């Protein structure tokens, strides 16, 4: 059997779409379709249910996926390790949350790209929650507190905190809230990860007790840039991570509010599955993140984040 057929099948199974699989593999859609058909002929059973819009696996396809996914990843890692005497290379696929400013701001990735010209970065910015391994990603970037316990994680920067902010022009007109519950009387700019999902409830802490406030935002969006722009224009109060707003806070264009109710928490982490043989391209990114000079002096280790595993293993 041509093992390339299994690689095609894996891409189709993970992408659930022939076109997406062809783009991922860098081949034509026809080549993907023919590869799947040839594999099915060799197996003597249908592996995929095809429609004009999507692809799903048959029961036999699910069994095949379960049997080959990890072995094929190990083969790819082993082949990369054989070439490890040369500079790391290949496509490094990463899924990062849109609020991961320390990772997405530019300097960290720009320096990594300059240091490792043989590595191609393929970064998807998304706030959807999914299994990065099942979707074919090498690593992800999220807040430490929401990373699954079976993942290994490396902190990017130090602790994070969320801030409530408004422009001076808004505060001159409407005044500033004294307590988080006062926010229900203000014009708020909220966030939701996707259509059909309720706006994010703003979370606070008082006397050691956590609570949230449903602010009923007048404007809701999944675009952080729009939230910031509206706040800068005096359009209302918004709620974001401090790292996303630092330039505007330092310039005074946005004023922090209710800081006493917003304690810090574990920040953003690069996370990835535990594997016996780590691909050189991923190892290069991990080492780069751990050694980047912008990491704050008050760097907090992963042991302080109860939902993730210690970096001792990496």
Short description:
With 314 residues, this protein is of the alpha/beta class. It is 35% helix and 21% strand. Residues 293-314 have low confidence and may be disordered.
Please identify the top-level CATH class of the largest domain: Alpha Beta
Q: What is the global morphology?
A: elongated
Q: What string, H for helix and E for strand, traces the elements in order?
A: HHHEEHEHHEEEEHEEEEHEHEEH
Q: What do we call the CATH homologous superfamily of the largest domain?
A: Periplasmic binding protein-like II
Low-confidence stretches: 293-314
Give the domain tally. 3
* CATH fold descriptor of the largest domain: D-Maltodextrin-Binding Protein, domain 2
The amount of helix comes to 25-40%
Could you tell me the strand content as a percent range?
A: 15-25%
Question: Structural class of the helices, strands and pairings?
Answer: alpha/beta
The total strand number stands at 14
C-alpha end-to-end distance: 36 Å
Radius of gyration: 23 Å
Average pLDDT over all residues: 84
What can be said about the biggest beta sheet?
A: 5 strands, mixed
Can you count the helices? 10
Strand order of the largest sheet: 4-3-5-14-6
CATH architecture of the largest domain, by name, is 3-Layer(aba) Sandwich
């Amino acid at each position: 059997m041509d093992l390339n057929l299994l690689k095609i099948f894996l891409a189709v199974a993970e992408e659930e779409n022939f076109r997406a699989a062809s783009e991922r593999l860098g081949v034509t859609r026809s080549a993907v379709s023919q590869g799947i058909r040839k594999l099915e002929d060799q197996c003597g059973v249908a592996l995929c249910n095809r429609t004009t819009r999507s692809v799903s696996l048959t029961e036999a396809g699910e069994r095949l996926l379960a049997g080959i996914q990890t072995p094929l990843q190990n083969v790819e890692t082993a082949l990369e390790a054989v070439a490890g005497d040369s500079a790391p290379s290949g496509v490094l696929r990463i899924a990062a949350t849109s609020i991961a400013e320390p990772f997405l701001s530019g300097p960290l990735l720009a320096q990594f790209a300059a240091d490792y010209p043989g590595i191609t970065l393929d970064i998807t910015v998304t706030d959807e929650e999914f299994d990065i391994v099942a979707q074919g990603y090498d690593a992800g970037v999220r807040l430490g507190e929401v990373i699954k316990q079976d993942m290994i994680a490396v902190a990017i920067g130090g602790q994070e905190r969320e801030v409530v902010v408004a422009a001076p022009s808004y505060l001159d007109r409407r005044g500033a809230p004294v307590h988080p519950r006062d926010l229900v009387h203000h014009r708020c700019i909220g966030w939701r990860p996707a259509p059909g999902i309720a706006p994010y409830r703003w979370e606070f802490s008082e006397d050691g007790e956590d609570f949230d406030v449903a602010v009923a935002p007048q404007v809701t969006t999944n675009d952080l840039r729009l939230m910031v722009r509206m706040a800068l224009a005096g359009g209302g109060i918004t709620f974001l991570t401090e790292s996303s707003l630092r330039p505007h806070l330092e310039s005074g264009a946005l004023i922090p509010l209710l800081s006493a109710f917003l304690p810090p928490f574990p920040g953003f982490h690069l996370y990835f599955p535990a594997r016996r043989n780590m691909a050189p391209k991923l190892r290069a990114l991990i080492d780069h993140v751990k050694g980047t000079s912008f990491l704050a002096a008050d760097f907090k280790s992963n042991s302080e984040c109860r939902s993730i595993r210690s970096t001792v293993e990496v």
